[in-house]
């Protein structure tokens, strides 16, 4: 009887301790210690000055890249070289709120987002003044043009200080979910014709809603994919024909994938694999490999190059010419290095990216060590080992940097690049 009573007490206590650890928020880093450039600084000349960021919720890789996918126009752009396809691997939890934060901050998220994603309390989600690529780009163009958003309310709940013009709808208004995409598209031609914005953010939710209702094999799935492909076609046509869109980068991406039942949130390969495509007529004139499209169905959902989803953040920074967010753990996507007009610029930006990651890692370790001192941590030895490996690899980068500065040959540049990507594997394995 005593053992049963003890078990009844310890089980709920254990559950409380487990849940407190699982759903705790990520510790705030002392970002003021990082000597990053001013938010307003435009750090280098960049190939693009505007961005269209089109997120299609639950856009799994095979929907765009495989022979069973419904994106024929996008596949044609890949064949022509005007589009660079990427498999962007998200992290847990594969939920929209968490993915938006990761895709804007460049860092991993906690399972607290699983709770916030459900309760929909805007005051608990908002991140005013957060260091994101949105804030960095907006500040670097502060005296110029606006940030525009059309889509679900979660973006505005997170970053209420970012958008100057917006049209939002609630992701919880279930009867209207399937048709909500039309409300975005009907305003698109007007936005594309205007020259008063720097960033146009679109979040289409309909594909995810179709999946939740009937799974990826639903009869409504292919028509929805074709509808999204038509949006890509409309935007690309504007990139080609509108004079003010000549230096605009168009990014089509998913926030996560989905299971065979149309669900997401876990870590199955089909949940983690999100399609990402960088699109611009300018890319067709840059040196890059010839790519076939569509491809045969891949059982592992990996198509073309696979990168971490957070690598999108420094990639946008490099392509748009603004400072990298201070807590970013991603690195510039290798397939997009050809967007720089010469290799030296690509190497210089990669080096700045590596320095930023190294600073963020050291400060993250410093914050973790403070937590260890307060409550103990059995993984503290692993963290110290990670920091040691990072220091060793950083020394290799410094040596490679000196060799490149002394003799800036192609071979030295390639060696420096490979050294930099080794450093990143410690920060985000």
Describe the structure.
The protein has 429 residues and is of the alpha/beta class. It contains 17 helices and 8 strands. It has helices spanning 2-22, 61-65, 72-80, 96-105, 112-119, 122-125, 133-140, 154-158, 180-185, 188-193, 206-214, 221-241, 269-272, 312-320, 343-375, 380-406, 410-427; strands at 50-56, 83-89, 146-152, 165-169, 197-204, 248-253, 273-279, 305-308. It has an 8-stranded mixed beta sheet with strand order 4-3-5-1-6-7-2-8, sandwiched between helices. Helix 8 links the parallel strand 3 and strand 4. Helix 15 packs antiparallel against helix 16 (380-406). The longest helix is centred in the last third of the chain and has 33 residues, at 343-375. The N and C termini lie far apart (48 Å). The relative contact order is 0.17. The model is unreliable at 17-40 (pLDDT under 50).
Helix content: 40-55%
Uncertain runs are 17-40
- What does the average pLDDT come to? 83
Number of contiguous helices: 17
The share of residues in extended strands comes to 5-15%
Helix/strand order, N-terminal first? HEHHEHHHHEHEHHEHHEHEEHHHH
**Oligomeric state of this protein:** single chain
The CA-CA distance between the termini, in Å, is 48 Å
Strand order of the largest sheet: 4-3-5-1-6-7-2-8
Sheet having the most strands: 8 strands, mixed
Shape summary:
globular
């Amino acid at each position: 009887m005593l053992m049963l009573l003890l078990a009844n007490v310890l089980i709920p206590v254990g559950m409380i301790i487990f849940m407190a650890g699982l759903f705790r928020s990520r510790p705030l880093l002392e970002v003021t210690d990082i000597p990053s450039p001013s938010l307003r600084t435009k750090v280098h000349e960049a190939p693009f000055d505007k961005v269209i960021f089109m997120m299609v919720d639950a856009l799994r890789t095979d929907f765009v890249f495989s022979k069973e996918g419904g994106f024929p126009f996008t596949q044609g752009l890949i064949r022509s070289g005007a589009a660079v396809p990427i498999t962007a691997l998200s992290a847990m939890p594969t939920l929209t709120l968490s993915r938006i934060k990761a895709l804007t901050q460049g860092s991993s998220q906690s399972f607290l987002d699983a709770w916030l994603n459900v309760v929909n309390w805007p005051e608990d989600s908002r991140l005013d003044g957060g260091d994101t690529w949105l804030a960095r780009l907006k500040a670097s163009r502060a005296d110029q043009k606006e940030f525009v958003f059309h889509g679900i309310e979660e973006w505005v709940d997170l970053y209420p200080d970012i958008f100057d013009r917006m049209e939002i709808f609630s992701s919880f208004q279930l009867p209207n979910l399937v048709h909500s995409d039309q409300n975005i598209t009907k305003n698109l031609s007007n936005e594309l014709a205007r020259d008063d914005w720097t960033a146009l953010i679109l979040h289409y939710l309909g594909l995810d809603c179709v999946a939740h209702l009937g799974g990826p094999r639903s009869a409504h799935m292919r028509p929805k994919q074709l509808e999204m492909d038509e949006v890509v076609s409309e935007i690309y046509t504007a990139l080609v024909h509108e004079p003010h869109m000549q230096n605009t980068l168009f990014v089509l991406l998913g926030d996560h994938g989905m299971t065979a039942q149309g669900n997401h949130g876990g870590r199955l390969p089909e949940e983690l694999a999100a399609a990402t495509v960088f699109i611009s007529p300018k890319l067709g004139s840059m040196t890059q490999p010839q790519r076939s499209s569509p491809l045969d169905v891949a059982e592992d959902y990996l198509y073309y190059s696979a990168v971490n989803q957070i690598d999108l953040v420094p990639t946008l920074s490099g392509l748009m010419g603004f400072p990298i967010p201070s807590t970013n753990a991603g690195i510039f996507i290798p397939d997009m290095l050809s967007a720089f007009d010469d290799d030296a610029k690509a190497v210089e930006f990669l080096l700045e990216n590596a320095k930023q990651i190294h600073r963020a890692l050291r400060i993250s370790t410093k914050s973790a060590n403070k937590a260890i001192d307060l409550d103990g941590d059995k993984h503290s030895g692993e963290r110290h080992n990670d920091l040691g490996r990072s220091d060793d690899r950083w020394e290799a980068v410094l040596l490679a940097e000196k060799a490149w500065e002394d003799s800036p040959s192609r071979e030295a540049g390639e060696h420096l690049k490979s050294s930099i990507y080794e450093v990143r594997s410690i920060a985000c394995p």
